[in-house]
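User: Predict the structure for this protein chain, please.
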Amino acid sequence: YSRAQDDNPRISAAFLQVVQAASLVSFPMLVGLLFVAPLFVPLYFGPQWNDIIVPLQFLCISGGLRAVAATTGAVYHAKGRPDLTFKLSLVRVPVLAVAIWIGSHWGIKGVAFAFMAVSLSWTFVSATWTARLLKMRRRDIYSAMAPAVTASVGMIGGLWGLRMTIFSGFS
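Assistant: Here is the predicted structure, written as structure tokens:
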């Protein structure tokens, strides 16, 4: 990115490729884990771990969002604005701390949900700042994730079909 510091179209194109790659790797994998968690956790860890299923599912969503939001820091540095990473963290960290504190009143599920909610809002904030900095539309960032969303839907369809095939005789 840094060689093209003043070339917004070039940085935007590279950034969108990184977003697409990050989402293509993380979304289907984490959506797959989210989908199989109710079967996987008791099978692999034992039924005593069933309480972790819902928090795991919340964290799968958070992980996909964080994978995309994490790509924005390089853009801030490339544009000569590493201060944005620091300034935005000055907002994000206290918001996350308060959200986790509030969520803790509902146990591990509440904490995982709080983390997911902050991740969701922070992905939107990161996309907004990056789009402004690169003078591009936020919609372009979301469009770069479309192939990953499609692959994730395919993952769900495939896993659902597999689940129906495997467990059809056990009804």
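The CA atoms of residues 116 and 158 lie 25 Å apart.
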